[in-house]
Records
---
Amino acid sequence: MKIIRAVKCSTKFATVKKKNTLDLVLKEYSSVVNFFIEFFWSKEKLDKGKLLKPIVDLPKNITWLSARLRKVAAREAIDMILAVRYRWKSDKDKLKVNKPLHRGQRITCSSTIAELQDSNSSFDCFLHLQSIGNKIKLDIPIKKHKQFNYWESKGKRLNSYIITKDYIQFVFEIDVGPKKEYGKVIGIDTGIKGLATTNEGQRIGDKVEDIINSIGRCEHGSKRQKRLRNYLRHYIDTCAKQIFKENINLQRIIVERLKNMNFKTKVKRKLNRGLRKTIGNWNYSYWLSRLERNCEENRVRFTSVNPSYTSQICNSCGHSDRNNRLSQDKFSCIKCNHTDHADINAAKNILNRGFSLIYR
């Protein structure tokens, strides 16, 4: 099994002149992408394989970009249009008013434009940009960091780059081997009081609620809020890795399929404003994505199940009632009197639901 990992390296070591040149290229590239968006927007069938010279040369008189970079811009325009069409495929009215717009923040290119070259200076390497147009050639200095070196040692670096004024993103392909066929299976309940609770009673991420409350007390957009959000993501990363450290020989992880909670709770007004804000600060989707990412790296299978009523169903007798949940932590079945920690009971239900899904 092969996985893809992206790594960002800062462009802060570039001189002011190089940064200004890069900013100029980004703005010119953005205008060409938007030109192609206007050209392709009304066309029903879009095919990146049919970008021949007559189409690529359409903006030739209004830009100094090379033919290679114009072709890259045309491809990105098609990708942006297809993404919008897919998102609003069930709502034609919103599709009409949601035409994509490239804002000049990045360029996605391959080895035809960019090439990573070794350096004899104090930097590890340079990203050499050529065939840009207007006789522009640009060498952006790169210093490799720990994460870059780790993935470079594990897999193969692909000739694909995302270039912005702040960073350059590199892509690695890693062969991790086949998924495990045998081993331990656990169910995980995700929450705010405890980020992860397993069916065996392990509880990981008890600090997440305090961090969320601290974020909520900050002024929106302040430096402190940004620092705390970064700390929350770092804490979630650590918790995701801890799952694998404390559970040796894992074969499968089963979690709840939590999707669109912010959107649904806001539109339907099921939760008050404070709780909706808490859910937003919690960043549950980031937690699940990091957990799935670690599963890929460790050859562990990742299964998500319907979360409906997992906190209300008794794991012992199967009786479902909202009154079974006495509090945030306590679960007591009103039918069979079975008691358990509420999150552990939910994790057991998630595990059982995952097993039934797998065997079915």
---
Amino acid sequence: MVAETVQKLTSQLRDSTFSISLIPIETLETRFQRLVLEMGRDMGKSISLKSDGLDTELDRTMIESLTDPLLHIIRNSIDHGIESPEERKRKGKPEEGTIHIKAFYSGANVVVQIQDDGAGVDPEKVFQKAVEKGLAGASENLSDQEKLNLVFRSGFSTSNQVTEVSGRGVGMDVVMQNISAIRGEVNVSSEKEKGTTISITLPLVLSIIENRLGQSRNQIIEY
């Protein structure tokens, strides 16, 4: 009976400890807003940032690992996705572009999406650039989605010159590596002149299991 009580209390303590380690994604929102404001101003672009579901919670260590990839994706949206006000006006779009960050639970996962209403990504141009850089063979018969996925290959960049934002050899492959390191997945979808969506799927259950296993290991070591 005493053993059962101790086990129950220990389980409750573990659950409480884990809940303390969970923090909402909205803790990063200030950094997102500052990046959009400062970078948009520097590039002469008018951009608004919208968000939904940022009260979605993740383990603190996972949030820390997610920060740089999200900031990199937002930089790409500002630099490559959102057009200048003049160009957007010519296309019949609102002069102000929009970046929309959404987070939500999907089964045993947490999904974080970064959407922009910019120029979109042309799969054929991505393929041609990959061939030019030796990252794909000209004779490869790829679907549009497979061509889009070439952006995740190491060394891929559409920038022809180095700037403070682009062409520095750090691309979406680094985002993929960082997300893979926390057992997540990254997917890209895009529609020409409509915009691009980058989706990051993270295993919430795995995060819980690993957190609890880590606590158990620590207790074994202490004992």
---
Amino acid sequence: TDVVMEEKPVKADVPEEYTQGNIKIYPAAKSPEYADAKLELKMPETGAAVQSPVKFDFEVSNYELGVQTSDAADKGLANSDKGQHIHLIVDNGPYSAHYEPDFEKEFDPGHHIAIAFLSRSYHESVKNGSAHKVFQFTVGDAAGEQTDLSQPMLFYSRPKGDYTGAGTNKILFDFFPVNADLGAGKYSVKLTINNNMEFEFDTWQPYYVEGLPMGENTFKIDLIDDQGNVVTGPVTSATRTFTLSE
């Protein structure tokens, strides 16, 4: 369950701020970095053919699952009362949050591409190089299909689900590029809000979004190459609908 902690003034770290209509997007306040945090995958082996429910087993180092991130009370964001966790994203669908390093999950037969990364209690991903794992697996009796996991990818994390009350004031926008360095003359991420507003980001960092209307909102993200073209691939775009209510 998400609860909203008290909001305190926020100082943006990087000047990548946009205002369009009532919508304001700006870099998130700095969070505890967890530079040494590490996530390793023990099972399933990447590329394996497995049966559903799939058994997952991770090893977490220098990071504690199930505790509140130290600055959670200052963020003014939707925050999990169960604490820090792992986000598991499969085929760029909505993530599932896991507060233990081992769990089981049902999947349809077929080939699946996944990322798991460490998440702070307010659902912001840990962005150091060792805190995530990209892998693939095939559910069912067929031999494991293989996708080249070295190609550019972009996974969608937040926003997701239902936001209520004070939790609607400031929404965390967080994504996870893989094999795609963001920056001037490099890759960027295009965000389309409610099919009528576009924003582009070339800094990999979390952002806050204010001024979204009540009711259903839709975020679409696309990975953009250095020529301004949408990158095509198995995991380069995603669309998610979430709800804000008083």
